[in-house]
Design a protein that fits this description.
This protein is mainly α and 158 residues long. Helix content is 87%, strand content 0%.
Length: 158
Amino acid sequence: MVVLLALAEGPIQLVPDGTLFLHIILFLIMIAVLNAVLYKPVLRVLSEREKLTIGRRREARSILSAVEERLDRYERSLREARAEGYRLLERVRAEALEERQRRLDEVREEVARMIESEKQAIAAQAEEARRTLETEARRIAAEISTHILGRPVARSGV
């Protein structure tokens, strides 16, 4: 190359000469060497990096979709469990209300029987008291008549 530069020491020529081919050949050799040594390895690393990045993105997307699916399943099962709990609670509440109503009906029937029994007992006691009072009233009336008249009075209807 020094030889070529020594030859070109003259004024700058704008007309192409034989060194132009030498420059083109050197340029092509430099492109080939740089392509083999620098560009291809860098491009290979960049393509591998892009593949890994795209692969990681795909992996991340698949993980996110799996997480979303699991979250949806969890929320759906949670809603179903809540609904089942509410149904169970409503059923227990309805059963309790039925039991309460049944007991109230039983107590009302018992109270009605007791009231009827007490009414009959009171009626019997009233009738007994009426008979006792009537007998006592006649006896007292006979005594009063005996005192007032001064003689024994015969009791009628006894």
